[in-house]
Write a structure and sequence with these properties.
4 helices; two-stranded antiparallel ribbon; transmembrane; about 140 residues; CmpB_TMEM229; membrane; ABC transporter permease
């Protein structure tokens, strides 16, 4: 039960931060972005569990940006193309894929993921009783 609460809490934190960041950036958002943001935040926090040790921050950021872009692409296929909600459209951006993702935003996710990594680790440490994070930039 404690594990379910943990993931619900992390999902909601990530979802609402993503939602409100989008409002600050674009002036509006869509409720589906809470779901997409929550999934992305859970993914970012799971990277340490996948590796069983703290991978270097740059590797975490790279994996996060690829994961977020993948989640955004799949979500875009469902939300924008199948359901025709047209929440976002990157068709006018260079290096886009079906208008759902583009290279520019993958680069932005790389840098924004650092804040998400720190926030996830802080929440897990301070509020969820997990180990204090130990960071490194590269492999030793």
């Amino acid at each position: 039960m404690k594990s379910i609460f943990k993931y619900i809490a992390l999902f909601l934190v990530g979802g609402f931060i993503y939602y409100f960041l989008e409002i600050l950036y674009r002036g509006y958002s869509h409720f589906s972005m809470i779901v997409v943001g929550g999934i992305c935040f859970i993914f970012i926090g799971s990277i340490n569990n996948i590796f069983k040790s703290n991978p270097p921050l740059l590797l975490q950021m790279f994996i996060s940006s690829i994961g977020i872009t993948s989640i955004e692409f799949i979500s875009g296929i469902v939300i924008n193309l199948w359901l025709n909600l047209n929440v976002w459209d990157y068709s006018n951006m260079p290096f886009n894929l079906l208008g759902q993702v583009c290279l520019n935003y993958t680069a932005i996710w790389f840098f924004l993921s650092l804040a998400a990594i720190f926030l996830d680790d802080f929440i897990r440490w301070k509020f969820l009783g997990e180990d204090m994070p130990n960071y490194r930039i590269v492999y030793k």
